[in-house]
Amino acid sequence: RMATRVEAALWSMMGHGARQLKRLFLNPAEDDMYDHNFDYNGPLEEEEDYYRSLAGGDAKGDDGHGDDGGGHGEFGVHITYEDLYAAMIFFTAIYVAGVFASRVLKMPSLVGEIFAGIILGPPLADYIPNPEAFVLLGEIGLILLVLEAGIDIDLSTLSLIGTRGIIIAIIGSIAPIAIALAIAFALGFDTKASIAAGATFGPTSLGIAMNILRQGKIVNTPVGQLIVSAAVIDDMIALIILSQLSALEGDATVAQIVAPIVSALGFLIVGGYIAVFIFPKLINATIMKKVPQEQKGKAEMIIMFALILALMPATYYAKASFLMGVFIAGLAFCRSHDLHHLFVTQFKRLMQWLMRIFFAASIGFQVPIKDFGNGTVIWQGLVFTLALLGKIGTGLLVPNFTQSGRFQGFHLRDVFVTGFSMVCFKRAFGCVPCFELE
Fold first, then answer.
1. Could you tell me if 123 and 370 are in contact, meaning their C-beta atoms sit under 8 angstroms apart?
2. 325 with 311: CB under 8 angstroms?
3. In principle, which of 5, 55, 222, 331 could form an S-S bond with 75, CB 3.0–4.6 Å?
């Protein structure tokens, strides 16, 4: 019976033409072996359903493998041609839109990719099949990008700007939240809605900023390192603030309020210290000394991903950001030239496509574009953009890393780059001025 099911499955996968040949050449005695009651002279569609049922799947039209929808059954996981073709259209659209935005409109490619996601995704056309799968791929791209940010950290540069990065992160989180909170109260929103509106201006998106900094080739400059460090700390602060919103939904315990604060600070300070000063010495003394020189990069890559798999759930269930765990894992290997070279060569092309999907799906799919036809939404949204002044103003705190006078020449450029980068962390289109300056 197993041989029968396997042969039936193979015939099912071979298509209509192959089954026509089977009708012509199959011995009637063998035909009876499969099903005495089945009419092989019937429509090909019915025969296709028959082979699917023999293979352990569902007939067409059910929730299984038919042309009306993909699915999985006893024999495996399948997709429909229509879904596959729609996915190829989506990939083509986000690539073309990105090229058009960068070369024709002179904007970052992510602007076109976000628009492609808005138009083809659930917010508007709802053409993309299985949108959750694309969002998942985009989030994987974000994880790899944050990991690269940790690997790219220059400790000598970070030691020069560490304190200033903390100050910029604190002001970049608190100031826009306070401004948005005041605007919400002025517009007549209640306390709960006002706090929620203010908190939306605190979180950062390191993925967007890293994409722009990489295009401008300033990630490894002092101002680039300042922005990356401020982004990580800013994300931690915003997460703590957002976690406190749970208190608005009912009675909150002391543990629910304190846990996010303690865990975030603990992972940032203690985890960061261990990653930089203890963990590298530990693995070098116990593992890496036994690894041949030509294999050190691969061994460190395996250890790094094992560390990610440990730190992601640790930070997530401790009520901190799982991206902080990823960043710390990369930070632990920021001194390794072998790992950095291997990571870039192995993941460069993959990350380019995953980040295109991230901007189109993880961001574009979330934009409620249909609500933009509401005049009230438009004018109140424009008023709320004043809160971005709190992030732009952080550029004034950037140290002068150049020979130019303060707030002149290249230092003025760094001021604008930092200010607009802090804006583009969460607001995708705020990064356009940063890109233009570079």
1. yes
2. yes
3. 55
Closest CA to 385 of 414, 426, 421: 426
For residue 38 the two structure tokens come to 């089945």
Contact 344, 259 (CB under 8 A): no
Q: What are phi and psi of 400, to 5 degrees?
A: -90, 100
Structure token pair of residue 323: 């991206």
CB 308 within 8 Å of CB 343 = no
pLDDT digits (tens, 9 = 90+) for 381-407: 899 989 988 888 988 888 888 877 888
Q: Measured at the alpha carbon of residue 391, what is the angle toward residues 198 and 146, in degrees to the nearest 5?
A: 95
**Which residue is associated with the tokens 């209640």?**
190
**Residue 398 and residue 225 in contact, taking contact as beta carbons nearer than 8 Å:** no
The sign of the torsion formed by the CA atoms of 97, 100, 101, 105 equals: negative
d(CA 174, CA 72): 48
* Listed residue (274, 154, 176, 175) closest to 226, CA to CA: 154
Of 176, 177, 239, 164, nearest in space to 206 by CA: 239
Task: Tell me the residue length of the chain.
Answer: 438
Dist CA 61 CA 354 (whole Å): 33
Mark the ranges of the chain whose per-residue pLDDT is less than 70.
Answer: 1-75, 162, 203-207, 235-236, 238-239, 241-252, 424-438
Identify whether the C-beta of residue 40 lies closer than 8 Å to the C-beta of residue 27: no
- Report helix, strand or coil for 131: helix
The alpha helices in 244-336, defined as continuous H runs, are 254-266, 272-273, 279-286, 296-317, 322-331
Alpha-carbon distance of 273 to 395, in angstroms, equals: 27
pLDDT at 280: 94
Distance CA 411, CA 389 (A): 19
pTM of the prediction?
Answer: 0.72
CA distance 438 to 435: 5
pLDDT of residue 252: 63
- Strand ranges, E, within 64-171: 71-72, 77-78
How far is Cα 114 from Cα 94, in angstroms, rounded to an integer?
A: 8
C-alpha–C-alpha distance, residues 205 and 432, integer Å = 15
